[in-house]
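**User:**
Make up any protein.

**Assistant:**
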Amino acid sequence: MEEEKQYWTLFFEHELHPRKMMHLGLQRNSNTKPSSRTTSQPFGAWLHGKVTEKYNLNEVCGKAAAKGEDKFCAASLESMMGFAISKLGKNVKVISSSFDKNHDEYSVEEVKKVGEKAVMCHRLNFEKVVFYCHQINATTTYMVPLVASDGTKAEALTICHHDTRGMDPIVLYEVLKVKPGTVPVCHFVGNKALAWVPILATKESCFA
């Protein structure tokens, strides 16, 4: 879905700096160089190994957690909040991205480090509302203000994974030419996902 295409944009943590051009989603121009760093495989595939395109709720929520991951499927706001509190404590807040669906290319304005702990909750495409929530070890969360060429603003919730041993080796090589477990890998998070973070960790520090 268009709203979720930001999951497909992968990049290195050292590339996260002001004036860096970021290309979102799949390439429309076959002649474009691979600097877009995108993959057609969904978030769960490149992070936890390949998944089938057609799956049901039990296959997603009943599957064992990946190494270094604590997961939970939440069918209500209360249960989602309860899982976040169990991992982060009671003093938490929610942050999310605000991408414009009509723009695929942005320039980074600044990089705001949120903290080292977060619980991510991804909206699943089922008839009833279900969020796939998980906490993964060795991650850093950023909020990244972006601007398109026409001045349109966006806020990109960004997750950088420092332990990439569980990521799909085929996807990592195709997109970034690296092997799992070698360098930190980052990705934007789409508008439909939420990040629960400790309030004390939201004193943002900026990269100049």
User: Anything to note?
Assistant: The radius of gyration is 16 Å.
